[in-house]
Write the structure tokens for this entry.
Amino acid sequence: MNRPERVLVVLPAYNEAANIGRLVERIDQAMSGARLDYRIVAVDDGSTDGTSDILEHYAGLLPLEVCRHTRNQGLGVTIRDGLLRAAELVRNDEVVVTMDADESHAPGLIPRMLQMVREGHDLVIASRYVAGARVCGVPLPRRFLSFAASWLFRAIFRIPGVRDYTCGYRVYSSELLKRAVDLYGRDLVQETGFQCMVEVLLKLRRLRPIVGEAPLILRYDMKRSSSKMQVVKTIRRTIALSAHSLFPQRQNPAV
């Protein structure tokens, strides 16, 4: 019998002590239930609430590697470091998953997204804008931001198969991720905030990936920690990212 495909799960975490232990256990249950080999790469972005201690505890029990920033650097840097580490570890028959560490993303969706990769997709996004998706407990300003970003990027930077440009719950084929890292290196993610997920998609356009979406049930009501998103700053940076993508010669790099 062939070894089952391995799933590498990248978890960017900042002050998620209230959620991270339960999430890691749920990932283990979902992967065990689907009979999938897996490894978690958790990147602790300078947490001060005990997140790192909880991750180190589970590293002794489960296939979990902990990378730690000595100071908080933002989601973009954390996602970048997680993806670069995953690109070093991933093999040809594997996939890389990114998901939030606050329990709003259900690990049980991973096998369904993996099946879509098996069917030929290079990238699968857990989407709030396809049939079967549900959103529970998300504050109105954040729902508006997500919807506006979806509308804006579909109008200006259309990527076939993509409606949800901002969701961080994604499954990348090993081939796509390695090609992206070979092309961009550490510049794959230059934005520091939540708009980094849009940035990654816009850069992947150059590789012409086949992208699909799976219906996400976003359980914001499961969160036991406060949101880290600064809505006004994220809107401002997303607009700046759009302008830079449209007129790269006229803009300064993100700082």
About this structure: Helices lie at 20-33, 51-59, 75-89, 110-118, 140-156, 174-184, 196-204, 231-246.
